[in-house]
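RECORD TYPE: inverse folding
INPUT: structure tokens
STRUCTURE:
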């Protein structure tokens, strides 16, 4: 699978770089436009500006300027609304997106330069990066052996072992279609949206690679590479302890994960291995359904005048 993936990625990246060559531009030379300003709208804007200048010299053009300006404002509002509607529809967290839009429009979002400090002194690159690396590495270093209660009853061993059936092209195409629409990229600079646009073309080679990996038990090393970025949880942004790591994996790795996950969930569901109280990572279930179930049980117990107790554990 390692060689097969290398061959596939080399061919894919060749055509990717051929069609999307890296171009260096001077960001200071051009004024940054709002994302809803289309080329057609920009031309209309220039026309309105020219008419405004000419109307001061030739008063007979004043009406033309006012009509053009009114038409431009109408088209600008429609384009802006269409942009935000599209952004909201493609969002996976609509509440967060709505608040981001509100904060952007009201000017509440401001980019701030965050300075990392150590013992009161400001730390710059590359030491700041080393501090994040050291901090995040602590999450994965096992300092002690896990403890468990030997007297705890365990479920008996299961007689039906799991078998990964051969993957077909449609399994891969279905997995790609289920990817979240996103322009974020892993180390290979390939986004989910790009993969979804070439789904039919890449499903066959990806299917071959996944089957090779399953049959040999080897997960390709290049799909294990991730970009780790710090995300502020709460508190002082200059303290690295207030950040948690987020990993940006290759989109191809996500396709691999979805295909195997579908078979795993199918096996666990078929033989009813997952407890019915499980809500996380289960289709059509979430923290919302868990909360609804808890409230329903609690209300029922209170109505029956039973002693009701809730235990909530935060693993963070």
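DESIGNED SEQUENCE:
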């Amino acid at each position: 699978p390692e060689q097969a993936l290398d061959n596939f990625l080399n061919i894919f990246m060749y055509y990717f770089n051929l069609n999307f060559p890296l171009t260096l531009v001077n960001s200071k030379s051009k004024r940054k436009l709002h994302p809803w300003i289309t080329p057609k709208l920009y031309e209309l804007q220039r026309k309105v500006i020219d008419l405004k200048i000419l109307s001061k010299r030739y008063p007979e053009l004043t009406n033309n300027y006012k009509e053009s300006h009114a038409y431009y404002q109408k088209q600008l509002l429609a384009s802006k609304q269409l942009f935000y509607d599209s952004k909201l529809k493609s969002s996976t967290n609509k509440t967060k997106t709505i608040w981001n839009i509100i904060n952007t429009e009201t000017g509440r979002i401001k980019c701030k330069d965050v300075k990392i400090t150590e013992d009161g002194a400001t730390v710059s690159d590359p030491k700041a990066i080393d501090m994040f690396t050291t901090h995040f590495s602590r999450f994965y270093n096992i300092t002690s052996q896990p403890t468990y209660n030997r007297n705890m009853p365990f479920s008996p061993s299961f007689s039906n072992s799991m078998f990964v059936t051969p993957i077909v092209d449609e399994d891969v195409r279905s997995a790609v279609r289920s990817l979240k629409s996103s322009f974020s990229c892993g180390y290979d600079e390939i986004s989910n949206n790009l993969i979804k646009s070439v789904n039919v073309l890449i499903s066959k080679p990806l299917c071959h690679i996944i089957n090779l990996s399953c049959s040999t038990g080897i997960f390709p090393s290049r799909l294990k590479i991730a970009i780790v970025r710090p995300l502020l949880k709460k508190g002082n942004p200059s303290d690295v302890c207030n950040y948690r790591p987020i990993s940006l994996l290759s989109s191809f790795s996500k396709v691999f994960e979805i295909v195997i996950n579908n078979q795993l969930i199918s096996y666990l569901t078929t033989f009813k291995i997952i407890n019915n109280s499980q809500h996380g990572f289960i289709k059509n279930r979430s923290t919302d359904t868990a909360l609804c179930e808890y409230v329903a049980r609690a209300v029922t117990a209170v109505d029956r005048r039973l002693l009701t107790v809730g235990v909530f554990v935060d693993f963070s």
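NOTES: Residues 171 and 275 are 27 Å apart (CA to CA).
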